[in-house]
């Protein structure tokens, strides 16, 4: 007989459960609050990297709104090596002469306005919020389904299974849209041009072309989600078997997020390498003598280059290990913890409070 946990006396009771629509509202609210609180830190990080010339030499950079990592192109009409006055219109390339994180916060707010701390947020929320809603609603209903099938008791493996399946579904659903968004962001296009670009991509790459980079994302996000929800439910259960307080949810979310981030950091390193590589190939693809961005989105016939082979996950992993050893697989762990722990804490505590709010 499998080990089970005591029945939760809170909102898991079928008599007191909120509806799926209310779950969606709670998760949507949590997603918006998380992104609004976490985005300024990533904007400041990107501005500091730009100032240090560590971003302008690249073709892409990762933008995190607290919910998802989004690939963004470094748009420069003359190329990264030839700065142009035109690039000042792009928020991530403004020079603020910052001496550190606190100084960057103060100068951006004073010189550019407080809303500059949320630069670039709107385009990413179009995908991040729906994906987060799908993820949390799917997890909640799968967890409750497993619990109901075990006589009202939650097996230890229930949250791990529900979290893994929910993340797999949410990531797979949003992957094609994220790839299209990345291409679209590199050059403003009309809906008609977007349709032409999509048709061209399907023509050369097939249906599988819409899911480029999905494997490395799943390799990181699915284990992270399973580990996170397993530890969250365990830690929450140590404090209460009923409705958790905001503080309990916040602490459990931060702790569980930290554990999951440490356990899956090697996969995050691989995923980041592959995401940047894929972005540079997809956004700046083009053969010699042909326009690059224009060959995909410019006027005239929409052209997408035939498929080009990318590094496999195992090859990327071996390359990182051969260059830097085991320590290379845990590169960026501290910044990731600083980002992941509060994001997980804010999201889950807001979601739990939203459930309680609708129950009342």
General description of the model:
This protein has 360 residues and is mainly alpha-helical. The chain is 63% helix and 4% strand. The protein has 11 helices and 4 strands. It has helices at residues 20-51, 101-112, 121-149, 158-185, 191-205, 214-239, 246-263, 265-283, 293-297, 313-328, 333-359; strands at 4-5, 60-64, 69-73, 154-155. The strands form 2 sheets. Strands 1-4 form a two-stranded antiparallel ribbon. A hairpin with a 4-residue loop joins strand 2 (60-64) and strand 3 (69-73). Helix 4 crosses helix 6 and helix 8 (265-283) crosses helix 10.
Set down the secondary structure blueprint.
Layout: E1 4-5, H1 20-51, E2 60-64, E3 69-73, H2 101-112, H3 121-149, E4 154-155, H4 158-185, H5 191-205, H6 214-239, H7 246-263, H8 265-283, H9 293-297, H10 313-328, H11 333-359
Antiparallel strand pairs: 1-4, 2-3
Helix pairs in contact: 1-3, 1-11, 3-4, 4-6, 6-7, 6-8, 7-11, 8-10
Report the order of strands and helices.
Answer: EHEEHHEHHHHHHHH
Q: Which structural class fits the helix and strand makeup? A: mainly alpha
Query: Rg to the nearest angstrom?
Result: 22 Å
Outline type: globular
**Straight-line N-to-C gap:** 36 Å
Overall pLDDT level: 77
Proportion in helices:
55-70%
Strand order across the biggest sheet?
1-4
Report the β-strand fraction as a percent range: under 5%
Q: Report on the biggest sheet.
A: 2 strands, antiparallel
- How many runs of DSSP E, i.e. beta strands? 4
Q: Multimeric state of these chains?
A: single chain
Q: Which stretches are poorly predicted, pLDDT < 50 over at least 5 residues?
A: 1-8, 77-88, 286-307
Number of separate helices: 11
